[in-house]
């Protein structure tokens, strides 16, 4: 998505990671600013979103 940080881009992820996993997961599930809820795929479960966020964070620290 336009403006989304790329996985492994530590500088772009640092401030997001600093907010904490709860905030990242909440924004991912519910949407935030221009980012749609669940990445625009309402069929994804909250657990799938949590796992995706955890993976992206683990690759970007």
Automatic annotation (TrEMBL):
Is Transcription set as a keyword in this record? no
An example of a Pfam family matching this protein is Cytochrome_CBB3
Query: Cytochrome c domain location, by residue?
Result: 5-56
Which molecular function GO terms apply here? electron transfer activity; heme binding; iron ion binding
Answer whether the UniProt record assigns the keyword Heme to this protein. yes
The record's section on InterPro entries has: Cyt_c-like_dom (IPR009056), Cyt_c-like_dom_sf (IPR036909), Cyt_CIE (IPR002323)
Superkingdom as given in the UniProt entry: Bacteria
Q: Which UniProt keywords apply?
A: Electron transport, Heme, Iron, Metal-binding, Transport
Q: What is this protein called?
A: Cytochrome c5
């Amino acid at each position: 998505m336009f403006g989304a940080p790329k996985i492994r881009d530590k500088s772009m992820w640092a401030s997001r990671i600093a907010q904490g996993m709860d905030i990242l997961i909440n924004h991912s599930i519910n949407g935030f600013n221009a980012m749609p809820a669940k990445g625009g795929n309402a069929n994804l479960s909250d657990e799938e979103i949590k796992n995706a966020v955890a993976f992206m964070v683990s690759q970007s620290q």
